[in-house]
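Field reference: sequence -> structure
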Amino acid sequence: MNDTPGPQEQDSSPDLVQVVLSDCSAADADAVFGALCTHFRGDREGDAPRQTEATRPAVWTGSFLASRAPGPVPGVLLSGAVTADLQGGPAAVGRLRTVLEGAFSAAAEGTASGDQEVQVQLRLTGADRGAPPGGR
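Structure field:
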């Protein structure tokens, strides 16, 4: 049985977080999605980011259901910086942010809050400990 969030579950869940990664290599995007897939159900499981055209900037997106607090998060090394934009319910975004801040060195670049949603932009760099990205 596939436990990837379905369309109705995605649209109505306060635990759904949209993640957009940019300004990074496909390998680093894969490392970030891999860290998130370890803790949350999402639509990126088994779907590694690929660079399709070298002259265009790449953006990768994923959706994750962050319905529970994550467990311990090991550090992950990156080859460069990654810009991560998170959008969703405040509690769910906070859970994803906890994973990202545990796995990587993270600096908040900006936040915006609405009535029932929050947007956070993080700049991720490799943790000072952990394993290099190697795909899943």
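Note: Residues 26 and 51 are 6 Å apart (CA to CA).
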